[in-house]
Amino acid sequence: MSFELKILGSASALPTSKRFPSAQLLNVNERFFLIDCGEGTQIQLRKFKTKFLRINNILISHLHGDHFIGLFGYLSTLNLLGRNTDINIYCPKDLHDIINKNTEIFGNMQFKINFIYHKDKSPNKIYDDKNIEIFSFKLKHSVPTWGFLFREKQKPPNIKKETIIKYSPSIEQINELKKGKDIKINGKLLKNSDLTIPAKPPKSYAYCSDTAYFEDIINIIKNVDLLYHEATFAKDLFTNAKERMHSTSEQAALIAKKANVKKLIIGHFSARYKNADILETEAKSIFNNTKAVNDGDIFYI
């Protein structure tokens, strides 16, 4: 199953000529999830050749403008394109009123927006289908803020080819094997482990937008394949990070290390940095498998 993350925006509150505000697109087996929607997100979707109408779910982490202002233009464009199917927005409750008070900019809406509000429960399952489940969880920021955990569901074991050839199991017996059970053929008990090959481990991705250093998330994101964690400042601006409830690159790396994640990507960089080299270097000193993202980067899990 495909599990592809595209970075649409990697700047913090002030965009630059090379970095747009926060936005990401996750493709899970051709289901597209837009994660945050900063100013200019629809431009980035155009630039990186994404079909607007294929996105049915939008997740907004919190109500700072650099994480949701792009919604107005994006929703208006969907309306102009003739979208007539529902779109789901997972968000803080107040976003509903903000959108509704500005509906005149959209014209006569041809599609319905379903608002699903974040809860204080952490983690809280917000999405579930046959392939993936998504959880929201609380972060530590100046306004209520949530991160997101995307987790693929465990696939059933694969039946060995020689099992089919040798035993010719029935459909019912194959289904039992896929459930992890042993089966009987001609009165003989056959162990599941001898007849099947375990499926690949489920893939996972965690998104931690604006947050101070917050160890409460460690058990939630533990062992994920890919972690995005904001790293607004380098370590010499630790005081700035603390006052504004953001993280330094070293703090992001420390969370990744304690959570035993496989790979860390960092973003949400302050506009003061011409490039993110120093942030990546500092993070790597604690967690080596770290990459500072750029707009347009793609990560395959």
Characterization of the model:
It is a single chain. The chain is an alpha/beta fold and 301 residues long. The chain folds into two domains: 3-155 and 200-300, Ribonuclease Z/Hydroxyacylglutathione hydrolase-like (Metallo-beta-lactamase, Chain A, 4-Layer Sandwich); 158-197, no CATH class. 25% of the residues lie in helices and 28% in strands. The chain is built from ten helices and 18 strands. The strands form four sheets. It has a seven-stranded mixed beta sheet with strand order 6-5-4-3-2-1-18. A seven-stranded mixed beta sheet has the order 7-8-9-14-15-16-17, with helices on one face. A hairpin with a 2-residue loop joins strand 2 (23-28) and strand 3. The longest helix has 11 residues, at 70-80. The mean pLDDT is 94.
Question: What is the strand and helix layout of this fold?
Answer:
Elements: E1 3-9, E2 23-28, E3 31-37, H1 41-47, E4 55-59, H2 70-80, E5 87-91, H3 94-100, E6 113-117, E7 124-128, E8 132-138, E9 146-152, E10 158-159, H4 161-167, H5 171-178, E11 183-185, E12 188-190, H6 192-195, E13 196-197, E14 204-208, H7 218-221, E15 226-230, H8 238-244, H9 249-259, E16 263-267, H10 277-284, E17 290-292, E18 298-300
Parallel strand pairs: 3-4, 4-5, 5-6, 14-15, 15-16, 16-17
Antiparallel strand pairs: 1-2, 1-18, 2-3, 7-8, 8-9, 9-14, 10-13, 11-12
Helix pairs in contact: 9-10
